[in-house]
Amino acid sequence: MATPVAPPPRRARNLAELVVNYVTEQIAAKALNPGDKLPTESQLMHTLSVSRTVIREAISRLQAGKIIETRHGIGSFVLEPPREKLGIDVVPATTLRDVLAILELRISLETECAGLAAQRAKPDDIARIRAALDAIETSRHNGQDSVDADLQFHVSVARATGNRYFVDILSQMGSALIPRKRLDSAGIARADPDAYLSLVNLEHESIFEAISRHDAEGARAAMRMHLSNSRERLRRANGVGEGNS
Predict the structure, then answer these.
(1) Less CB within 10 Å around the terminal CB: N or C of the chain?
(2) Domains in the chain: ranges and CATH
(3) Do you know which PROSITE patterns this protein is assigned to (predicted)?
(4) Is the model's pTM score more than 0.85?
């Protein structure tokens, strides 16, 4: 009887592919969702019976494929899957006229967004919106630019609707949504920057409070008031009439 031939040793590349497939299958099965933390290297090593080198190779591949992101000292997290763009090409706001036009668009879009968020927000959504507001305040008190935190607040409200298209639209608008990087809104409004941002943040708090108590009409009114106030402050400061916006 012939001596059986031993199977070839498993190559690290094939093993890394096994780990990649395992993670992507977990994501496809909803066992891991966007924002979830991956099991630790040790847990994956034990589950899949592979070495730490194999796990790290697989992690590198998952990072390159934008399936996960790794935060130093914290761990690796599942990313939102890439989506086809909606064909929106927003020119960054560089003039007062641009800012007023964007605010008109935002009033129509984000008013309903806030109402739906109030109806549908889960505890995690409320916590995410609260965290964005706290980040705005922290940036302001530290004298830092709060544009990114401000954008995250509005995107977090959109995310609470459970409708990914609100999130897609606001995310694609990006910095055009909060144009302070390109246009000194506080200066245009002829206000002290800190007082101006303090007022804006009070309006943000009103939106948050309505959403957190699931008051849909209150959230719509608070968002409409916030964006309408922003528009009117700029108009009055610059002598721009309704028909000239």
Answers:
(1) N
(2) 12-78 (1.10.10.10), 96-244 (1.20.120.530)
(3) HTH_GNTR (PS50949)
(4) no
